[in-house]
Design brief:
alpha/beta; 388 residues; 5-stranded mixed sheet; single chain; two-stranded parallel ribbon; 12 helices; 39% helix; binds iron/sulfur cluster
């Protein structure tokens, strides 16, 4: 069975905000598996294999990985994403540099606190330049992963730095990188140079969080970070926030002060996450035959499907009421991102770059901890609520 640190790098954005989640999450069953997370694990296994053997990801197309009960096949999308990551790692690493694939930083982090630990995807160190580079691969497409002030990356960087700090050539420059090929049109590779001073501050922040997490009654704080908390279904703090949101009368919304509205917004993601978790739990129980009072399973609406497309075409061709071309849909041009994926980034820029531009379709409300620069709407009407 895989060992998970109680205060792992991957969960650091949650426990830095809510130290109380560490003990609460410990008591939860370890059954938080999903197809996207299993696919991410398979992509990481493929990337590790490719970096270690030097083989191209395309050679593994069709291979199957068995992860958390899912059977994941290496498809074109996975080959594309992992190729980008592997190429980037190889680009960062020059001959003569040190490198680690899947570096377990636990040994150097547990000297700070026994609950710390984690594994960095890729680390390379140029002794001459004293440059330490840490790369994290993100297979997901749903959540944008920023690089600046990303606690998971700083955690890995800190572990790798602590591993090398007593060597004859300790690191002086630290750069962290995120490779996220499947997230929309944004540049899939981001990097941030972490000032050493910031890394030392970060070390203190995680040590303080660990001290708080160990208290008999550790502090709980709800927010965006609850989305990925294994305790969200059972957490008293989140439950209290949910009740607060429920208690608000919709009619009094316009009368809320900006501060009250900001507070309500900051917990909305967490409350939504809790609702999603409740639905998922009810679905799981009903599927295994349990009775959940007031709830039942029904079949999704059935949609009609062709059972024999060749026969449909044959009949339609002889149907006097039908013009054969009309039975087909018009071809649709691929999106910019899809065509770029098809021809490759460089060739795309040369051949089609002048035919694209970037236009935002509007505005989203996000927490001010989000890495993106704030927008200054000039034309948006405050009534464009439906677009949010
Ligand atoms: S659900 Fe939110 S408030 Fe509750 S323990 Fe998890 S992170 Fe903390």
């Amino acid at each position: 069975m895989t060992w998970h640190a109680k205060m792992s790098a991957s969960a650091s954005s949650r426990w830095l905000e809510c130290p109380g989640s560490v003990q609460l999450a410990e008591r939860m069953p370890d059954d938080d598996v999903s197809l996207p997370s299993a696919t991410g694990t398979a992509a990481h296994q493929l990337a590790e294999e490719c970096l270690k053997t030097g083989r191209y990801p395309a050679r593994y197309k069709g291979k199957r990985y068995h992860v958390d009960g899912f059977d994941i096949e290496v498809d074109d999308a996975m080959v594309y994403g992992v190729t980008l990551y592997v190429k980037y790692c190889n680009l960062l690493h020059s001959p003569g540099d040190m490198r680690w694939i899947e570096l377990d930083v636990t040994k150097w982090m547990t000297t700070l606190h026994p609950w710390f630990g984690g594994t960095a995807d890729f680390v390379t160190y140029d002794q001459e330049l004293r440059l330490l580079s840490v790369v994290d691969y993100k297979n997901g497409s749903g959540v944008y992963v920023g690089v600046e002030e990303n606690p998971q990356l700083m955690y890995y960087a800190l572990g790798a730095y602590r591993m090398l700090r007593n060597s004859s050539h300790p690191p002086e420059h630290i750069c962290v990188h995120v490779v996220q090929p499947n997230y929309g049109d944004d540049d899939p590779i981001r990097e941030w140079q972490v000032p050493l001073e910031r890394l030392r501050e970060f070390q203190q922040e995680i040590v303080d969080a660990a001290a708080a997490a160990e208290l008999d009654t550790p502090p709980l704080k709800a927010g965006d970070h609850c989305k990925f908390c294994p305790a969200k279904l059972h957490c008293p703090e989140l439950q209290q926030h949910t009740q607060l949101v429920q208690a608000r009368e919709f009619e009094i919304l316009p009368a809320l002060s900006d501060v009250q509205l900001g507070r309500a917004m900051s917990i909305l993601d967490a409350v939504e996450a809790r609702c999603k978790a409740i639905r998922a739990e009810a679905y799981k129980r009903l599927m295994r035959g349990d009775k959940v009072p007031g709830q039942k399973l029904v079949e999704k609406q059935a949609r009609r499907h062709w059972t024999n497309e060749v026969e449909v075409v044959a009949r339609a061709t002889n149907d006097p009421e039908v013009v054969t071309e009309d039975i087909y849909q018009a071809p649709k041009l691929k999106s910019v991102a899809q065509l770029e994926k098809l021809v490759g980034k460089k060739a795309f820029a040369e051949r089609y770059g002048d035919l694209t531009d970037s236009r935002s379709s509007g505005y989203n409300v996000v927490s001010d901890g989000d890495a993106r620069a704030p927008a200054s709407p000039t034309q948006a009407s405050p009534d464009e609520f439906d677009n949010i």
